[in-house]
Design goal:
The structure is a homotetramer. Chain A is of the alpha+beta class. Chain A is built from 7 helices and 19 strands. Helix content of chain A is 24%, strand content 23%. In chain A, a hairpin with a 2-residue loop joins β5 and β6.
């Protein structure tokens, strides 16, 4: 397996399986002198962890981050920062029955095909638990971005068929954490919550959409051609479990538009070059133009459901499977901090890459 | 600038500006012994080039690929393959008037901000001409994939508001090249063509969507976690000029679905493990499962339009700009071979990476 | 700080400071299905650790490797393998006096200049303790190479002015571990040992040379141009603390030779292409030719000595420093497993890279 | 084949075979705004090219660099800079006789083994002609380093058994180009020249050593652990054709030294931290300390000699081979600009990497 490293200069490598001893991340390339607040990392992990409310899974994961290296007297030293999170609630017996079964729309079959064996306990490396390592690393990246006044905010804009059509400018980001679905519109949040409860009762699950806004991004981030800012963002976001789609700015709606309505007119405002509209989503030619970066991410409904489903085992024989234990009927609320983390890691990397833009820098 | 290299083992580096001497690509990592057909590369470039029909730009670019290295007696030697395409129709005088102007939704402003200077001739490095180098490299990747019976087919499934709702399984791929919009449904193709003509008459432009199907992919391609097959595909595709969105399998529609309807049930068919539906789009846990890989790409309408538009120049003063010369009112038909090329490069890379899956391989 | 990752396909990332909580390594890219013997890793760490004999440092480091991930039921799963080694004997008080002092020929000054701060405890990230993580990873690589019957053997060929001129073919590798200097020639080993004892008594230290032989390497490993087999080996080896020189085959002696004596004549032996001599050191044009790979590494004398030395502190004022505690007067014997580990990692990486040599593979 | 790319931020990719259409290089990551002097690149290529004097090969290669991209109105734009050099004097007929023969100590056999086929014309990709692309790229890097007042100077310090023992501080670098061997000591240069002439008359060849000094390097370049400054330098230098050894500072001599004599004492000079001696070769803990960087490179005698040599062909049958045409009896003088080029590329890369050292940068 390759592909456990992401980033070029602010670079992370994650490791760990759902029911192994621990999961963790090594951050290589964090500049020296950053005040690293362990408590902040813990808080971000709390936002991601299951069991936060009635609508998410009831498992209690005590995700306490331990910084093994790279921080001395509270500051990053320039050395790689390794953060480890122990796996406490292992319950591997819950999964023994899945040893030979290929759960529908899970990674059981593809891992077996690729590697010839697999750690079947709780999905092993394919488990969403892996994203805790991303959130821990993202929390460090967010602290780095604070020095640049770059702020990343994600919220739930769709759950099942309930979709929030308001622009993010009409919303109060302070209200995102006010409800368990992480939708800043209280009325819509209630509908979403009800839909999730209903799905849970039906032993079913629901998909959704997360919107993310990055504010305060300076002009000049992103690399032309293959590493356009939104292309690398897309890579990062699409690598999150259960993601099926990614769009920036006008997104898929752009397909139905005409150039004359889509083009963002340049104007001068307070000596700054701005655009009147932001269909570009803050990125033009792959490079940030100083406007807010806006992107949306579509999540499929979780594959694990309580309902019995038909499938086959590794001998090719028919069998049925049903989700035991406690599983999220909708992962989208918990995906909010994961989206933010990946966005933070990408922006941090591009901030460092941009230091090489010019000869005089 | 970084980011002109893509891929890990089947790796490309592109170079060249729209109105410089030449554009080109270096392919490093193509295995030795591949019969490289120069004529095939040329044909693929012909599919991409402007001026193919009344509905695309009338510029004539004679894109003839010259292989400078890496091929000996018709076969790849294992050495880097450099393919160069001369820029013939330069007409830099067409662009002198744009030297100081920031065209709306172009990369003029962001390049200037990032680099402190820019090659303003025809968009320089930000021009879509850069994609010719990708198509040349993709043509080599496609020849490599023929050895594995992997076939990549893209077609236009939406232009403006005209959207083809049929499944790709109802379509005859042989008909894609029958019309200039590259939509295999003749009736829909006519509507799309009419819409493009209308936009042209209005001095305007149109967006659209390209659907791509990859057939014959073996199980086991893609790397878990950050380099999931669809994440790297997304990176590749989102890096193409004018792309605003990317989705695989059920895509954004998944958000509104329930797990019980979205999950792909495993069955055994002729001793092979298959799925009854393919909402996963051929990829589960980031790894190919042997089903067709399906993805869609949204393109915004081209920023260059004949209509006069308000903007500012590099001194911050208001001015207007209008597209002179010949420009595509809709790039989507020409995007078809570009999408295929990027998909081929990604799959070729993963085919090589998969050689490291197991100890015994 | 970057540069904590090494390798392309069999890739390691190390972390940890001398007196932090732990040091460790993440191996990404180890093929699935490898039987990973934890005990073997421990044994290799034992070979590296200080306090093995009277001639090396008396500190007792209980280097017990804990595998956090990537191994399930005794086999590599394809997921990243994280191995952590706790730091037990921390004694940071030993180092408080060095907080403001730049020890001669240590990394204190350069770390301070680069990062603006430093973890001064025992050298922090610059400590040779970091090499324990390399040895742990190398032990996994060695187990991988066993599948290919590739064997890596290093031994001490020079300590101070005592140099072994015999060819490695005259030596019995079984005798390397018979003495604490790890020189397979008993007579020379005694002289070396005496020299080290003498240096210790003088409160001084000694340099030396390690010779390494890699047997059983198939033809075709190594990548032409920048990643020639010996160039990447050189990179790996020169990155080990205290290394000042690296040579392959004839090495620096080649400078004084004529082509007619240096060229290795090809012959056919038992249907195999062999060379009569091996000045090439098993590598021609950067690619293995099937002969033994031979290289030598020069180590400087350790910078820490018991004798008082003049230096300055971080305010630029004169002071003196003397090595307290227990330090190796000669690191070369302990460098033997480190050299082997780095060589194993390089060869493992090239074995995987070579899977991409040809179209038919 | 992989491995045709070198560097992380100031990154080059080379391509081309000895007798193909052209060789060239793509530089990706050169900051925008650098004045790129084409004439300077040409001059550096002139220093490398054969046929400069009676003692080197008499082939005339008209190495004229053509910049295809990345430079606009004399300045780097941030886009990749592609430089191509046409192959004019191809004479492939000279090489047809070598089609099936494995020349001793050449790469014929290993390329054939690795790739299953080879471009036998003049060594193909394994030819030293490939280094012209490095020199062209290095010339751009040197122009970049001028902004930092970093100066790289190499000279010949040994040819065959004639070795210059003087310190570089006793030499006048202005005299390096005064004689065809590029040794700044006139007396020694004469001896070296005579030795080369003698080898030529004997139909034989000679090895040698190049010393390189990098002056003006700021503190803080180089990355701890795997990408130590001298480790990456070693990688770069060992990748040059015919190199057998690399050492920095005290090099192999360090093995015979004691710590008390090897350690470089820190002192304060004019408010700067300096060292009294420089056995460290300007690098401590892998990071530059502000002193001159000093390294030496050993070259083997060229494998091609006029004398008849025994070898085998690709069927395993005995045959003889003798160098026809015009070949260098000693490549060391021409290696001087190649060494400088690779050193410049490494330092340029580390200058950019160092921009990420600290949070405040």
């Amino acid at each position: 397996m390759a592909g456990n490293t992401f980033g070029q200069l602010f670079k992370i490598t994650t490791f760990g399986e759902s029911h192994g001893r621990a999961i963790g991340v090594v951050i290589d390339g964090c500049p020296a002198g950053l005040a690293v607040n362990e408590e902040y990392i813990h808080k971000e992990l709390e936002r991601r962890k299951p069991g936060q409310s009635a609508i998410s899974t009831q498992r209690k994961e005590d995700d306490f981050p331990v910084i093994l290296s790279g921080v001395f007297e509270g500051k990053s030293t320039g050395a790689p920062i390794c953060i480890v999170i122990e796996n406490k609630d292992q319950r591997s017996q819950d999964y023994a029955n899945l040893k030979d079964v290929y759960r529908p729309s899970h990674a059981d079959f593809t891992y077996q095909e690729k590697f010839g064996l697999r750690d079947y306990r709780g999905g092993g490396r394919a488990s969403a638990r892996e994203t805790a390592a991303r959130v821990a690393a993202g929390a460090v990246a967010k602290q780095f971005l604070e020095h640049y006044n770059i702020k990343i905010t994600a919220f739930v804009s769709q759950v099942g068929t309930h979709r929030l059509y308001k622009s993010y400018k009409e919303l109060d980001f302070e209200k995102i954490e006010d409800n368990p679905v992480r939708c800043p519109d209280a009325e819509m949040a209630e509908k979403m919550q009800a839909a999730i409860e209903e799905a849970r009762k039906d032993g079913d699950s629901l998909g959704g959409v997360v919107t993310c806004i990055i504010q305060g991004v300076p002009t000049g981030l992103g690399e032309p051609v293959f590493d356009k800012l939104h292309a690398v963002l897309g890579h990062a976001i699409l690598s999150i479990n259960a993601v099926k789609g990614f769009e920036t700015g006008s997104g898929f709606d752009a397909a139905a538009m005409r150039g004359s309505e889509h083009n963002d007119v340049f104007v001068t405002e307070e000596d700054k070059t701005r655009t009147l509209t932001n269909h570009s989503g803050g990125i033009q030619g792959g490079i940030s133009n100083g406007e807010d970066i806006v992107f949306k991410t579509a999540f499929k409904p979780p594959a694990t459901i309580a309902k019995a489903q038909q499938t086959i085992n590794n001998k090719g024989n028919k069998t049925t499977v049903e989700g035991k234990g406690r599983h999220d009927p909708c992962v989208v609320p918990r995906a909010v901090p994961i989206i933010e983390a990946m966005a933070a890691l990408v922006i941090a990397d591009f901030v460092l890459l941009a230091r090489g833009n010019r000869i005089g820098a």
